[in-house]
Amino acid sequence: MKKIIIYFFIGIFPIFLFAQSKNMRDSLELFTEKVYFIYDLDVISYYDLKSTYRTELLQHTFKKTNEYDSKLKELVKLKEKLFKTYYYIEIPNYFEHTNYDLKKGGFNVDLGSINGTGNLVYDDFYAKSILALPSLCNVFFPSLPIKKKLVIKQLHAYTISFFVPMNEESGVKIEKNSYTHKVLFVFKISDSVKIKYNKKEESLLKADEVKLIVLDNDNNVLFEKYYGKNELSKKKNQN
What we know:
The chain has helices at 34-39, 43-46, 56-62, 66-82, 168-176, 229-238, and strands spanning 5-10, 29-30, 85-92, 100-101, 106-114, 120-122, 135-136, 139-140, 146-152, 157-165, 182-187, 191-197, 200-206, 210-215, 221-227. The protein is built from six helices and 15 strands. It has one domain (5-238).
């Protein structure tokens, strides 16, 4: 199971300009699950106060204090910045276990499988998802063309894959750096969405647009591809 490193950068430049900077990662800060706490205005989780206010009553009482009001105002300001923030999810050696498909013209990446309970079985790609959703770290990317294939009908088991088209020149660069490259998924949060499956409900942040950038160890751009509104339109027409 691969480790995911997530970063964020607050800026005013369009998403496509980030790929032009070889030192883009130098200006990034480590991003944690606190972004979800900001979005939900969850004061207790964001400020790590669960051990202090460990019961429902203690939390209820705390929410009546001036301290809570002050911290909530801080979170509201952070949430305003959230929608102007560029987020990065970094995955090392994303194409390590797949080869360039000459017939299709790209890489088909195996993301894992889904069993009958709706849970994702993690393989090479670390993602939390249900119903083969194109998501990373509970961020839903509706424009990513992720596909699922039924493999065991009785168990409702599916394999999940993600095809990344590119020319042979880019494919050669990636295969030469198959053990030393990393992939950045660059995006802005646009909204949130609730998904129901097998009587379970999961809340995901949503990013309508995302850019996939492949870098070598020196942060040279090997490949980049934008997924946005055009991909969303194609999906709707196919349904």
